[in-house]
Write a structure and sequence with these properties.
The protein is mostly helical. About 70% of the residues lie in helices and about 10% in strands. The chain has a single domain, classed as Arc Repressor Mutant, subunit A, CATH 1.10.10.10. Strand 1 and strand 2 form a beta hairpin. The two termini are about 25 Å apart. The mean pLDDT is about 90.
Length: about 160
C-alpha cells in the first residue's frame, strides 16, 4: 500500500466518523426537541457536565463549552431558574460555588438518554448480529483511544 493510499484510507475513516458524529448529533437534537423541556444543546452539555463525577463551577463550564465566563454563568442561571441545576457554596471556600444536578435535572437526562437508546436500538435492528458486534468492538476501541487523552481527545497528537 502506498503512502497516498494509506492517507486516503485514513481520510475515509475520518469522514466515516464525521458522518457518524452528524447522526449522533441529529439524534441528540431530536431527543432534546421531543423531550427536552425547552433545554438548548449548550444547556444540555452543562447538565451532562454536572452529571459527571467531580467538582463543577462556572469556570469549568466556560472552559468545557469554550465560551466566556459571563456566557457560562447565564447558561447556568437559566438552568437554575428552570430547576434543573443547583448552586451550592463550598463549605471550605465560600467564594467557590459548585454546580450540581437537581432531581429534575437527573430525570431530564434519564428521559433524554432513554429516548436516544430507543432511536439507537431501532437503527441497530437494521443491522445483522455480526455487524452490531463489529460496530460495538470498534466503538469500544475508539472510546478507549479517546480516553487516553483524559477526556480531551482534541489534545491527541
Amino acid at each position: 500500500m502506498t503512502t497516498v493510499q494509506r492517507r486516503g484510507s485514513a481520510a475515509q475513516h475520518v469522514e466515516t466518523l464525521l458522518g457518524a458524529s452528524r447522526i449522533f448529533g441529529a439524534i441528540t437534537a431530536e431527543s432534546v426537541a421531543q423531550v427536552g423541556e425547552g433545554v438548548t444543546l449548550p444547556q444540555l452539555r452543562v447538565l451532562v457536565l454536572a452529571s459527571q463525577p467531580g467538582h463543577l463551577n462556572a469556570t469549568g463550564v466556560a472552559e468545557a463549552l469554550d465560551v466566556h465566563l459571563s456566557s457560562a454563568s447565564r447558561i447556568c442561571d437559566r438552568l437554575v431558574q428552570a430547576g434543573l441545576l443547583d448552586r451550592r457554596d463550598l463549605p471550605r471556600d465560600r467564594r467557590s460555588v459548585e454546580l450540581t444536578l437537581t432531581r429534575a435535572g437527573e430525570r431530564l437526562l434519564e428521559t433524554l438518554n432513554e429516548h436516544r437508546r430507543e432511536v439507537f436500538a431501532r437503527i441497530l435492528r437494521r443491522m445483522d448480529a455480526a455487524e452490531r458486534d463489529a460496530l460495538t468492538q470498534a466503538l469500544n476501541r475508539f472510546i478507549a483511544a479517546a480516553d487516553q487523552y483524559g477526556g480531551h481527545p482534541a489534545a491527541a497528537p
